[in-house]
Structures are given as structure tokens and as C-alpha cells.
Amino acid sequence: xxxxxxxxxxxALALVASGCTWSLVGADGSRSGAGADGTITPGNVASLQxxxxxxxxxxxxxxxxxxxxxxxxxxxxxIAALDQGNGAERWHVGxxxxxxxxxxxxxxxxxxxxxxARNHVVYVGDADAGVIPSYHGSLSGxxxxxxxxxxxxTFPSGGLESGPQGALVAPVPRxxxxxxxxxxxxxxxxxxxxxxxxxxxGSVRFVTDAVGNFAVAGNTLYEDGLKVYDLTVxxxxxxxxxxxxxxxxxxxxxxxWSSTVGATKPTVVxxxxxxxxxxxxTQDGMLHAFPAAGCGAATCAPSWSASLGGTTKGGVAVAxxxxxxxxxxxxxxxFAASGCGHPTCSPLWRAAGLGSIKSSPSVAGGVVYLGGDxxxxxxxxxxxxxxxxxxxxxxxxxxxxxxxPVAIAYGHLYVGADDGTVHAFKLPSxxx
Length: 432
Hints:
By secondary structure, the chain is mainly beta. It has one domain (13-426): YVTN repeat-like/Quinoprotein amine dehydrogenase (Methylamine Dehydrogenase, Chain H), CATH 2.130.10.10. The protein has strands at 13-15, 49-53, 63-67, 70-74, 78-83, 89-94, 116-118, 121-126, 138-143, 149-153, 166-172, 175-185, 191-199, 204-208, 214-217, 220-223, 227-230, 242-243, 252-253, 257-259, 264-269, 272-277, 286-291, 299-300, 304-307, 317-319, 322-326, 332-336, 349-351, 362-364, 367-371, 376-381, 394-397, 407-409, 412-416, 422-426. The strands form 9 sheets. The chain has a 5-stranded mixed sheet with strand order 1-11-12-13-14, with no helix packed on it. Strands 15-16-17-20-24 form a 5-stranded mixed sheet, with no helix packed on it. It starts with 12 loop residues before the first strand and ends in a 6-residue tail after the last strand.
């Protein structure tokens, strides 16, 4: 029987960074949030000056990444490749403003997720509505120079007819894999959601029933939950964690282990996986740390945890032995990544008064950056200030809320704003 699907949420796309680019949201497949570009440092960050700002894409910037000399930015309706040095557009797919709502059926619709680049290809999930009400989404890879489609993720027979929430491309031994999150509503029936793990050629390797944010480290996939999967599974062979039929997309792999507490937005650095609990009206948000290899049981408790003093919307960044995370009320925290030797830890330092925060921190060159709803990006010395309370080294006015992580690459700071503009900052001596 033919099935109709409708996307309900767009999510994130991430890939593995190389060199001094920022080729994914989260900087690498493990989503460390730490980039390799050391051009901007605590000693010179205050001298950053505007380099360029793009024309508005009208809709808020979903996310941006930087690779192959270009900034790839998406809104819900458009993906564009901008020259990293001057902001000139190389190519785009989609439109600035949303097309007319149904019953208009003359304009193709694109509902883009977050971009990510690898090996001269930029990947993005696209819930392309096509001709209303027939929805035909895709997970596509575009040539970074031309914008031509050079990769396509396929669905098994009887497959999905709408775009994924997002995707992540990361190298594992012997081959790359593409991990695609999806959530669809079957017409008249319940929401179906989970994750598809693709081979590098676009064929399906296996499916999980977890949904949300995810990270890849080595042979392991970490998803919201916290649920942890083995990426070396092959559908052609048996595996204790998997069951079902590949042709009908019912091969489902159960996690090797999962968390005993609420944990989302996993980040894996070294032998530790960090995750946050968003919190609610009666519970503060939390930072949790787990052994990345698990605890030898089906469910694992955190090695250590920390209260964030309020709810949190973003994830973490980890660099040089320090974990950075912010709460929604506008406080940035820095914790020792190794913990404190106790089940509950206190921060090394904090910075308060940053306004409402929905974004995750980004770190590069010894500087940690955080965007806020007040339209500012604040920069701090990642090593702290010698006190338990620190002030920013610099703040940069964007003019619109910054609710997604910034990128640091090619000696520039790149910021996507909710008014649909992309901003670039550079040092006075930097060219391009």
C-alpha cells in the first residue's frame, strides 16, 4: 500500500571537519564544537572587525558551515554557497521567501535542514514538497562549486516520501557512513521516527528507532536518549542487536547501551560522552558525563553530573580538557572534562548576564564564542580569567538574535542570524 508522509521537524546535519575549516555544525563528527583554526586568539579577538554581511535570506539561518573556500548557509527554504572572503554567492537552491501555502501547487517547496561538507560535497536534508500534496523529500549531496547534485540517499522499497530531519557524515573504518534522522507522520496514522544509517553509496545499512541529535566517534553512533549503536553492523550478516528485513526497511538495531537519565545532544571527546538534560519548570538543566565505551551493562549512569541552574537549549563544546555549556537564562559555564572526583561537580568559572541563550558554544584558538537572543556574540578566554566569574574579552553586535552555533575558519568568525543574514568578522591584517 502506498504511504503518505509529512515532515514535522527539521534537524541538523553534521560532517567531519578537516584542517582549519568548520565543515559541520559542531566542528567534527563527534560534535566537539572545537575547531582547528588558531588565527583568532584571546590576545587579538577584541580587534575583530566586520568583513562582510550577506543580503538577508528573509527566513532565519538554520545553520552554516565553512569548507572549500565557501560558507554554506541554509534557511528553511534555501541553501546558498557564499564566498568565504567576500560573501559573494556562488550558487543556491530554493528561494528566499516561502512559497504560497496549499492549495497552491505550482511552486516546488524546500524545507532544508543543516548543511555539512566533506570531500568537496555539501550534504543537506531537504523535505521537498514538490507538487502539493505529494511530498518527495531527499538527502542530497551538492558539488561545492557548481551546486549540482552528486550524491543521493535512497530509501528501501516502499520507502519514505519526505525529507529527513538531518544527517551526519563521518568516517568509520573501511568506509564513510551517512546517518539520517527522520520523523514523519503517516496520513491518518501515528508519527513514525528513527534514524537511517546509509553506506557511502547511498544504500541503507540499518535503521534505529532513536530520533534527535547524534554524534559519531570511531565505530559508534551516539543518539539522544542516550542510546549507543555499533556502526559496523552489516545488514547482510547477523548481529545480536539487529532484527528484521532490509527490503521493507524493518531492519532495526537496538542500542548496545543507553542512559539511566535524560540525556540529549551527545558530544564525544576522548573516552567520555557528554550530554545535557534540558530541564523543565520543576527541574534544572543538567550536564552529564558517561564513559564512551559504556559500563558493561545495558543501561549506564553518569560518571558525574552538574546542575546548570536553569533550563538549557544548546549542547556543549569541549576543548583542552574543558567542557563549555550555557543555560537558557544567559550563563556560560566551564567545567573540567575529567570531572571532580565526585558524582556532582561545580564549574571552574562562569559568565552571567548574557541574555537569553538557545545556542551551543563554539571554541577555536583558545577562545569560546556564544551567541545570544540579544543579537550579540560574546567571546571569552577559554582558559578562564583567574576568577570564578569572568567577563567577555569582546562582544560583537549582529543586530538580530543568534540562536545557532558560530563557525571559526580561514581566520574569520562567521555568524548566522535569525534575520536571515550571514556576518563575517576578520582581524585588521587579514585579507579576504
